[in-house]
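Task card 7
Instruction: Convert sequence to structure tokens.
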Amino acid sequence: ALLLLAGSVFSQTPAPAATAAPAAPTEQATVPTSHANVHKGPSSGQILLVIVPKGTVMPILGRKGEWVQVRLTPELRKTSMVIRWYENEDSGWMHDSTVEITPIAQK
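Output:
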């Protein structure tokens, strides 16, 4: 049996417009206690990715309620305790009570 499909195979939808680059972070999170947890999502029930030591400073990428999204760098693999950071996540979430939030000095 031969199946014949009618209609255009190619869509006439225009290509999506280029999106603007994300804005540079304006705030940073510093760990003031002996350590702080970084989770995969904005909840303590999410997978724990890494435990970062006191003094670690990370740019804040976003916020969701009492949670801040921070940038994870390859350097953290050397200075922190990796728990389940198997994938190449480039951000994680920390509860705002576990960090000090300060503005990033603009150059």
